[in-house]
Model the fold of this input.
Amino acid sequence: MSDRSAPLISEETVNQDRCEQILECKRQIEFWTKKLKDLEKEQDKRIKLARLRVDAENFWSSLTTEEQRQKVFVLAALESEELPEEFDDFSSNVFPSSIRKDRDVFLARVAREDFESRYRYDRLFVPPKLRADKEVILNVIPKHPAIVESMSCSLRDDTDIFLAVLSNESLPLHVLQHFSERIRSDHEMMLKLCAHPDGVYSMNFVDQSLRNDKEFMLEAISLHRLRVPSIVSSTICIDTMLDAPHILRHASQRLKDDFDVVLAAVKRCGSNLKYASYDLRRNRTIVVAATRQDASSFRYCLPGSTKEQLVNDPSFVREYLAQRTPNELLRFSKQSFDELTANRSELLKMLQCGLDWVYVPQNWQNDKEFLAEVVYIRPSLYLEISEAFQEDYDIARRLIDVGDLTDDVILEATEKCPRLLSDRDAMLTIAKAWWTDVLNETLAYSPIEIRGDKEIMLEAVKNDPKMYKIVADELLDDRDIVFAAIESSPTILHMVDREFQLNHPDIVVTAIRNMGKNDLEDLYDDIAFDLWSNFDVVLAWISRGGEWHDGINPAFSFNEDIILAVAGENWDDFWKEASREMRSNKEFMLKAVSIESRLIDDAVGDLRHDYDLALLAFSKCHLPLGYYFNDSSKFRCIVDDERGQEARYVADFEFLVSFTKKVRERIAEFDTFRDVVVSDLSDSNSKSAISALNQGHETREVLCNTISQFLGLPDREEVSILRSASANLLLWGL
Done:
């Protein structure tokens, strides 16, 4: 009875429930489809960002226009070592205004290693809203101090900015003009400026009160460091370099007439005398001090009794002028000049210091012994003495003993005095000291006895390997001569007899090792053909980057040392030269990948997905990961079937996922062990039972290593490799 009275569920209700379930299923499908697409899009974005960080120069063009205008992609590209052309002129309209003026983008540009070189000579555009940002300005100053020209007025009174500028090796010209009056009149700040080698260029902008302060100027002079011209800043032209030491130039007129200030300045740099007052430029103490520091500053001594007394003072002339500016002495005092040139030793000193030969008295110009000394202390004067004395053997021979001669002097000597060409000692000296032009004009015209002298020719070919062609016949096959020539210039190998090469293959090995990599192929035809079956020659050739020629003995394609040399220098050809058996051998491939990580792409079969091999490759460099993300893999190139190619993609991706998981798990295991076991063992206050095992540092280390090995945890070396691999995986979005 009760069963008959129970309400029946209508068919309409059942259908309605079924429709709702179908709609819910549809909503779930749409939700997860959208979720999957979003994840795929996010993963694609992460991969693109990783590719940009690795190689923005080539990958940037593959982005869409919309992506190229997005901040996140621009920031990723700025992390790459090389940038695409679009980044060369960031102030142009290539990028939208929001990107060009963005703070993060600007700081990313500043952080690049090439930022300083990019803007060394160019003006840097700073977005207006960043010119008042102290952090931004402080970040730029170490690489581009000229940014102070663009900073806002609010920062021109900031001492932190000023000190940051002074910490640079070089300063922009007149940098002080970009700072406030308060800083320009700050005694301590201005002394710091004076201590900088380039600070003198801004001295004119120091407050007048300081430039009229005797105490300040004396401190400034003592602090000022002169910049060596050879390392002058690129921001300072050579013309203005001449004014660099003249700190007195910027002192007030009152201090230019102050004895103490001027004396300190000329002791620091003699040419400061130029800016002293007229009275002090006639002061004997000041002039002597300036001349002692720099003899050429004597020209700033004004005419008067002081100058007259000094130029006629033999002791002053001898000490300060005769040894430095002897030609000027004649202009200042003919009397002193005549007195000094009458003395043999004084005249020799003056000649050594640059006195022109025309000022030498005639009696000395005809004195043979004097001339022999002259050419020894100043060889260039050989070209100015009379021809009769140039032809004198004793004088010419004395000249050769100098050793440090210019080409024109030695060529003139051997031409005027041909007897030198037969003098063994003279020719040995020439062979040791001179190069192509001189040796061609001397040794080439020497008698056969000289060209047959092994010691002479050995020195000659060391200096100029081309001298090998003029050696006497009996020395052509001398091993020492040939080796010296080859060591200096491998191209000489074409002159070496083939039979000699076969008997001395080490000579050929030396030629290969010394040959430039770009010119190595030019050496191929000069090597005796039979030597391509010599292991040492082939190994040297491959190790130097030479190609695998048909002449190389095919048996070497099975030699591991030779193939590993290919891995190091011609890794692109590794897959062609290494046999399949080698590329299937894990131990061999581990050696190859340790040389060039990208060779993992040449591993055969499942070895490509071997954990140990992949860990070694991925820990060394991020580039091998590219073979698992794109079509550049050689293995994909040989797959014609689309299904097979798709299977490769899937297999590679699955391997990378599992590999990444294992790497991170191994790192986590080590970190957990370190944080739990090692920390408890090291903590004497720990209540853990394991802390009782701590019996000192050495015992603790042994226990930690023993426990770690028992648990199968990675050691420190393996962890370092794991962390490197993890970092490279992260670059590719894994």
DSSP finds 44 helices and no strands in the chain. The radius of gyration is 41 Å.
